[in-house]
Amino acid sequence: MVMMTGSLAVRGMVVWLTPQQGGRVSGPPEPDYDYDYTGTAFLPPRTPADGQAGVSLRRFAPGAWRTPVEGIIVPGQENRSQQVVPGCLVVITEGVRPVAFLTVEEVHAMADDGTPVIPPDPLPLPVIEPAEPVPVPADPVEAPYRHSTAAARFTSTHSSDSIPAEPLTAEPNPDELIKAANSL
What we know:
Blueprint: E1 2-3, E2 8-16, E3 37-42, E4 53-58, E5 66-75, E6 83-84, E7 89-94, E8 97-110, E9 116-117, H1 149-157, H2 174-183
Antiparallel strand pairs: 1-6, 2-5, 2-8, 3-4, 3-7, 4-5, 7-8, 8-9
């Protein structure tokens, strides 16, 4: 989690509102190589009146209503205690009118020189070698566990003479079910 105590570099997805939704009359802004789109923003549950921040966006597709974007969020002087985390929603405004929504995917603090402070990758997890396989008894009559009454039933009812020659199927023969039920 990042507390907005200074400028933050963010990456995410911006969705521009249509004019019918109250967005920009001219549609999505056209990015320019010399200038970034700048506006105001707030993070809900705040409002433009009590949580306004500055926003600058760049590297977005020209004329696209929904596009990946990079940007900088700069909190207002009295509004530094907002949490900006991946997954949060930033409402971009022009004045107090919402014109776009930015869903934050990455957040990085900004250094004094304006470059993002990217934390180092976490250490790789250690590789765990598999243990040696447990030997399985070759004798099919040998029970897989010995401390249960089930083991005694297993060894007494399964001898090599009583194993059927045909493989078992998913649907048993109804006559065999009736015969088995009568033998109980």
